[in-house]
């Protein structure tokens, strides 16, 4: 047998135990041996012999009674009556010997017959018999009770026949011949051997039916009873009955029996918390112990004893005693009846065993699992036929093979450890265990096998099944749970775990580890233009490029959508600047790789990559490190895209500031902290107020008055991603408030006699927002009673992705209701020409950037003049935003601009100051009244709209 095979089923060594009762056994042997030596030498004097023969035996019996009584108070309730009866039996023996000693030692008289000692000695056997009956296992069937009675009679009758033939017949003959003999004396002389025979019968019968609990204590008690009965038998025999004297060697047997009774309860071992069955001897088959066959041989041994008694009685004049004939016949009859019962029982058991054997053979041979039995040596002794289908090897081929030779070498150590642990565990605590390992098949490949292991005669029973497909499926599910299904890169969960491992493992002190967050700029346009299938192909190609670009030990992952990440493990460098330069080069190389053209669906597609980089600073957590990289990535996108940004602490501070301001803005919207101001729009020809532009202001709790550019920027970039993803809900709520308040106040001014239109700025996205109830602008005009022409919607520069057809339909519907449309930012937006061509625009509002440089820059002067010429040619009025200087007023008026708005005339006014300005009606125009250089504009103060050719009818002012 190989070393692994021997180790597989070898139990670990068990230490301790076996020495605790050695001292008590030696002391018992020394005391009993000393008493025997003293009795053999006559104790030196007759007086000492009498004392030791009477009171010595009484003291030993009293010690046994006390020991059994004390033990009875500590044992289980079911065993307590047995030890109480044993205590009473020993007490009666002590009493009998004490009475005997009283007459012989104290009174110096011969023991009278009968006496109290005879009564005490006669009570010894019945109480012991009752204790044994309580101790024995009770039969569960009627046949069992019958067999118990027959076995008792077989043993008792045989012993009685043998004893009668040897000795008892001599006691009974005087009474049978009619001689003058005392009947009580004869009955008493027969009572001693008969009770001893009954006690011996019970000892023999119940020895094979005793309970398994406290086996050592019970064995000691039975041995004590057997020794006592043997001494009683020798005492009643004709050889010793006439020559016995107190203190003889026979008393040594009774003395030893009493001390053995006293020692028996304390020889019981306390329950071992971890019972360890002794390992069988290697190389020898398990055999049934000889003691297991004694119960079956007991009736025949009893019949043999009875036959010996009959044969002993035959030479006595050739005439058998009637008592011997009667008892012999009854023993034979009991043996025949018992044999018949056993024969019927054996036939039933044989049939049941055959049926169960066929049943279990069918189960084993028909099972899809492989059942194997391994001997204590580790060799397979049995393998079920299912091995051919599971392992690809015939069962006969596996029988005789060492189990260790079939297990994968990498799994063998773990299997050996588990088997040794299992064999060392008590069966009650762990009856079975489960082991999973790789098993060698007939084709040479390794199969994943799961085995349920049970103990079997020192070896093992293994119920094994092939779980290779399950293991493969589990590995596939694990891979799917940790990888992106489209690109097969690690997903966010696996990437986060690897970042955590990099920060907490052996690299915990390496602060040169970096995380890269990557976003593909322009990916959404790919999805919108050439389809999502092409977008998926682009992501797959980008993932392949990213995986090929990172180093072998680094991790590339897809976090979702068009966002990727890379974990760049540190090299232990302490030079932060050098490491930043190195990682920046890696990130820039990734950016260049991902920004190269993609060949998708036969066409070339270009996207850019924005990358944020963050380093593992001391004490940073995985979530903070990934957040920092995300912030840096959004900073790269905000700075123009297609670039690499390193994380700086002020990025987080800016996010915190924006978050705090956004929270305050949210509170301000609900608490009504916003105020509505209006800035006059002045006719550049005569200074008349042609309209008022509604502007919102927010006065915070600290008294700070935020301008529209400040808080609208916060509103549009709050509650988004780390870099400030727009929050449409907050901006939409603010836009709705501005529109409703502006219309309501304009309606109140109209009732007060100030028919000045109000200008409200609104983005095209907000105007087409599906979350806003349809017809909200129309509903506002009707609810507040604002007349036609009282509202001018200033359309902000729109996203090119806004559908022009839908926007055109929406603006046309509003235009029919008298709502005027102004195009904001004219001269800066790339969609201005399309807007002029398709949208119903009434006014053109020059971009502030043109107005600011119209005086200093000749180039801007020419551009602005050209744009104003286009507006006048189309019959549209024009408004210059941000007119703050008198020189700008003069230049714009000379170029044909009809209206202006800015600090050159007035800043934003509250309602009280606005009405005072409207009552005044005009603002002084720097440079006086000048005739416009270009025709087409209205010379009045009202914003009269002209469209188309001169034949078109102009819309009268409100």
Q: Mind explaining what this structure looks like?
A:
The protein is of the alpha/beta class. It has 32 helices and 21 strands. The strands form four sheets. An eight-stranded mixed β-barrel has the order 13-14-16-17-18-19-20-21, surrounded by six helices. A five-stranded antiparallel β-sheet has the order 2-1-5-4-3, sandwiched between helices. α6 packs antiparallel against α12 (322-366), α19 (532-549) packs antiparallel against α20 and α24 packs parallel to α26. It is elongated. Mean pLDDT is 76; it is low at 14-18, 174-183, 270-294, 716-726, 930-942 and 944-958.
Number of strands: 21
| Beta-strand percentage range | 5-15%
Tell me roughly what share of residues is in helical segments. 40-55%
Number of helices: 32
Find the structural class using helix and strand composition.
alpha/beta
Distance between the termini: 112 Å
Order of strands, widest sheet: 13-14-16-17-18-19-20-21
Main sheet specs: 8 strands, mixed, barrel
């Amino acid at each position: 047998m190989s070393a692994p095979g021997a180790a597989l089923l070898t139990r670990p060594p068990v230490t301790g135990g076996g020495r605790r009762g050695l001292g008590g056994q030696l002391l018992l042997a020394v005391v009993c041996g000393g008493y025997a030596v003293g009795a053999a030498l006559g104790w030196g004097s007759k007086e000492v012999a009498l004392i030791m023969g009477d009171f010595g035996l009484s003291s030993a019996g009293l010690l046994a009674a006390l020991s059994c009584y004390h033990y009875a108070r500590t044992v289980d309730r079911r065993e307590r009556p047995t030890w109480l009866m044993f205590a009473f039996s020993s007490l009666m023996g002590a009493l009998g010997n004490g009475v005997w000693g009283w007459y012989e030692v104290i009174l110096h008289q011969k023991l009278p017959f009968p006496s109290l000692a005879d009564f005490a000695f006669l009570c010894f056997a019945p109480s012991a018999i009752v204790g044994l009956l309580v101790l024995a296992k009770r039969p569960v069937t009627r046949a069992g009770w019958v067999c118990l009675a027959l076995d008792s009679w077989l043993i008792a009758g045989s012993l009685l026949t043998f004893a009668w033939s040897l000795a008892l017949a001599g006691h009974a003959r005087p009474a049978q011949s009619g001689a003058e003999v005392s009947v009580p004396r004869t009955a008493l002389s027969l009572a001693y051997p008969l009770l001893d025979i009954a006690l011996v019968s019970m000892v023999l019968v119940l020895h094979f039916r005793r309970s398994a609990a406290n086996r050592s204590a019970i064995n000691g008690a039975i041995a004590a009873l057997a020794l006592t009965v043997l001494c009683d038998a020798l005492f009643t025999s004709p050889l010793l009955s006439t020559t016995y004297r107190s203190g003889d060697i026979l008393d040594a047997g009774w003395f030893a029996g009493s001390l053995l009774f006293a020692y028996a309860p304390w020889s019981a071992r306390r329950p071992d918390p971890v019972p360890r069955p002794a390992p069988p001897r290697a190389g020898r088959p398990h055999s049934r112990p000889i003691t297991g066959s004694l119960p079956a041989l007991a009736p025949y041994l009893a019949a043999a004893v009875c036959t010996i008694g009959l044969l002993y009685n035959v030479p006595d004049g050739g005439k058998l005693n009637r008592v011997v004939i009667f008892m012999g016949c009854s023993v034979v009859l009991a043996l025949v009846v018992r044999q018949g019962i056993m024969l019927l029982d054996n036939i039933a058991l044989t049939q049941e065993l055959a049926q169960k054997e066929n049943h279990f053979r069918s189960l084993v041979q028909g099972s899809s699992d492989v059942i194997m039995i391994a001997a204590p040596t580790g060799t397979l002794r049995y393998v079920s036929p299912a091995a051919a289908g599971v392992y690809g090897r015939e069962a006969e081929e596996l029988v005789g093979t060492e189990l260790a030779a079939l297990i994968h070498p990498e799994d063998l150590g773990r299997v050996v450890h588990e088997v040794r642990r299992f064999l060392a565990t008590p069966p009650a605590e762990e009856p079975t265990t489960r082991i999973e390992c790789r098993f060698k098949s007939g084709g040479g490949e390794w199969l994943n096998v799961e085995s349920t292991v049970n103990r079997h005669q020192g070896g093992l029973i293994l119920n094994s099944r092939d779980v290779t497909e399950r293991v493969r499926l589990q590995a596939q599910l694990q891979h799917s749970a940790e990888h992106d299904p489209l690109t097969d890169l690690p997903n966010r969960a696996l990437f986060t775990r690897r970042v955590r491992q990099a920060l907490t493992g052996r690299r915990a002190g390496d602060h040169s580890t970096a995380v890269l967050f990557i976003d593909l700029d322009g990916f959404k346009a790919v999805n919108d233009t050439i389809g999502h299938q092409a977008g998926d192909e682009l992501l797959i190609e980008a993932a392949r490029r990213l995986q090929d670009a990172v180093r072998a030990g680094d991790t590339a992952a897809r976090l979702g959508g068009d966002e990727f990440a890379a974990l760049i493990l540190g090299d232990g460098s302490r030079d932060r600047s050098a490491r930043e330069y190195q990682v920046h080069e890696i990130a820039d190389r990734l950016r260049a790789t991902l920004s190269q053209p993609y060949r998708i669906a036969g066409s070339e597609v270009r996207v850019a990559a924005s990358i944020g980089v963050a380093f593992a600073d001391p004490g940073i957590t995985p979530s903070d490190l990934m957040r920092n990289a995300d912030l840096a990535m959004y900073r790269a996108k905000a700075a123009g895209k297609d670039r690499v940004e390193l994380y700086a602490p002020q990025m987080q501070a800016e996010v915190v500031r924006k978050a705090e301001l956004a929270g305050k803005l949210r509170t301000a919207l609900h608490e009504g902290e916003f105020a509505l101001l209006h800035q006059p729009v002045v006719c550049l020809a005569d200074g008349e107020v042609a309209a008022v532009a509604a502007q919102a202001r927010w006065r915070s709790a600290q008294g700070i008055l935020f301008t529209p550019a400040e808080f609208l920027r916060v509103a549009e970039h709050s509650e988004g991603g780390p870099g400030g993803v727009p929050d449409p809900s907050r901006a939409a709520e603010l836009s709705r408030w501005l529109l409703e308040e502006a219309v309501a106040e304009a309606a109140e001014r109209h009732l007060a006699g100030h028919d000045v239109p109000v200008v409200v700025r609104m983005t095209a996205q907000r105007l087409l927002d599906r979350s806003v109830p349809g017809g909200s602008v129309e509903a506002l005009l009707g609810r507040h009673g604002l007349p036609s022409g009282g509202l001018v919607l200033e359309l902000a520069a729109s996203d090119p992705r806004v559908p022009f057809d839908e926007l055109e339909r929406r603006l046309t519907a509003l235009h029919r209701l008298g709502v005027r449309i102004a195009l904001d930012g004219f001269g800066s937006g790339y969609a201005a020409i399309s807007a002029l061509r398709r949208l119903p625009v009434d006014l053109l509002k020059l971009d502030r950037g043109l107005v600011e440089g119209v005086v200093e820059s000749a180039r801007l002067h020419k551009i602005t003049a050209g744009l104003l010429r286009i507006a006048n040619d189309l019959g549209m009025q024009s408004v210059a935003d941000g007119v703050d200087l008198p020189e700008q007023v003069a230049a714009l008026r000379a170029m044909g601009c009809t209206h202006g708005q800015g600090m050159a005339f007035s800043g934003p006014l509250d309602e009280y100051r606005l009405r005072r300005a409207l009552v005044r009606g005009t603002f002084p125009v720097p440079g006086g009244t000048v005739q416009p250089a270009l025709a087409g504009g209205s010379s009045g103060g009202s914003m009269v709209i002209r469209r188309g050719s001169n034949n078109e009818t102009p819309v009268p002012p409100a």
